[in-house]
């Protein structure tokens, strides 16, 4: 069944199931489903025209996948994905790192991208999903950095201690488990590590405030919110309707998920 037919059938089933005027949440669910459908078609068009290669941003030139383990593919390929973090990643990258700890690596956008960007750095990538681990290993090999991207499974709070004394940078996106993993009382080595963590109060209310409380004694903390995307648009995308241009950089977030950029004092 084609992607379009699958989306149409899904919407038809949802609409047929409405017994009264739909709620805002029901309408939003359908809108998001159609948006994801269109986003996937845009990703297909991008790959057909450019191949699965990142166009711009810090990971420009990276050979990527044709299907993301989770979330939107086309903004990763265009290079606008989480572009709010680009200046912070660049600043940290200049700090003379010797390793990166990427927890919640998915198929390896950051793990492999950072290995390519920082050519002497060892990247330790972790994900609890075996399929994501496999995809990350394959992506590292595809980009010639398999010797510096070490992929593992479950990562626990105390595991940060294995990197004590190293010039390590932590990149963490664990869909609500941030407070489980970032526990400086169980891993004092975190006090010396720059950290970028995506916060998910939509899953666990109070997560961001709790992390700020825990790390204020050891780190300078900046809250980074999602922002509109500015980018060099390829001609074929310029010719499409404005909605397609917006969907090309939509990251499928249901609600705001601001990042904390934390730098040791």
Question: What's the structural blueprint in terms of helices and strands?
Answer:
Layout: H1 3-16, H2 24-50, H3 74-78, H4 86-93, E1 99-103, H5 109-117, E2 122-126, H6 130-142, E3 149-152, E4 168-172, H7 178-181, E5 195-198, H8 207-215, E6 219-224, H9 235-238, H10 242-247, E7 259-264
Parallel strand pairs: 1-2, 1-4, 2-3, 4-5
Antiparallel strand pairs: 5-7, 6-7
Could you please describe the fold and organization of this structure?
By secondary structure, the chain is α/β, with parallel strands linked by helices. The chain is 37% helix and 13% strand. α1 runs antiparallel to α2.
In short:
The chain is an alpha/beta fold and 265 residues long. Helix content is 37%, strand content 13%.
Briefly note the CATH topology name of the domain at 78-228 and 254-264. Rossmann fold
CATH architecture of the domain at 78-228 and 254-264: 3-Layer(aba) Sandwich
**What is the number of strand segments?**
7
Shape: globular
Strand order of the largest sheet: 3-2-1-4-5-7-6
- What is the terminal-to-terminal distance? 55 Å
**Which regions have little confidence, pLDDT < 50, spanning 5+ residues?**
none
The CATH superfamily of the domain at 78-228 and 254-264 turns out to be Vaccinia Virus protein VP39
